[in-house]
Structures are given as structure tokens and as C-alpha cells.
Design brief:
single chain; mainly alpha; 4 helices
């Protein structure tokens, strides 16, 4: 929720170049925190999202690319890993 509020504040102040990075970072932090109550693999997904968020903050005009990697590719890889580890048994 805090990440959404920070993102809305950035949009309101016309600092949209950091919105993609902030969403990735806050989402990653949420995944790391929730990993204590769910599968351990969620922790690694969270770390990957945080790293991508930091990279998106460094390369401001490539936010969509980092979103595609973070919210697309990482989740597909995570889903494949979880499927092979838990559902194929």
C-alpha cells in the first residue's frame, strides 16, 4: 500500500521517471516480507524484483523494459520452477 501511495505522489508531482522503479522495489520488498509465511522461493523472486527496481532507477528511460523483465519474465520463470518443484510430483 505504501508503494502505491509513493507512486501516486510521484505521479502527482510529475516525477513519473521513477514510478516504474519504485513499483518494482516496493513489490520486491513485499515479496521478501511475505516469504516468511509462504514458499522460500518467493524470497528469491522478491530479491530479483528489488534488484530490477534499483537498475530501473539507474536507467530511468528503460522502465518499461524492467517492468517486462520483472513482472513478466521473472514471474514466468518463477511459475515454471514452482510447477516443476511442487505440481509434477
Amino acid at each position: 500500500m505504501v508503494g502505491g501511495i509513493v507512486s501516486l505522489i510521484l505521479i502527482y508531482r510529475n516525477q513519473t521517471d521513477l514510478v516504474a522503479a519504485m513499483m518494482l522495489i516496493f513489490y520486491g520488498l513485499a515479496l521478501v516480507n511475505v516469504s516468511k509465511f509462504t514458499f522460500n522461493e518467493v524470497h528469491y523472486l522478491g530479491i530479483a524484483e528489488i534488484v530490477l527496481g534499483i537498475a530501473a532507477a539507474l536507467f530511468l528511460y528503460h522502465g518499461l523494459l524492467f517492468w517486462t523483465i520483472g513482472f513478466g519474465f521473472c514471474h514466468i520463470v518463477y511459475g515454471i520452477i514452482m510447477y516443476k518443484k511442487y505440481d509434477l510430483k
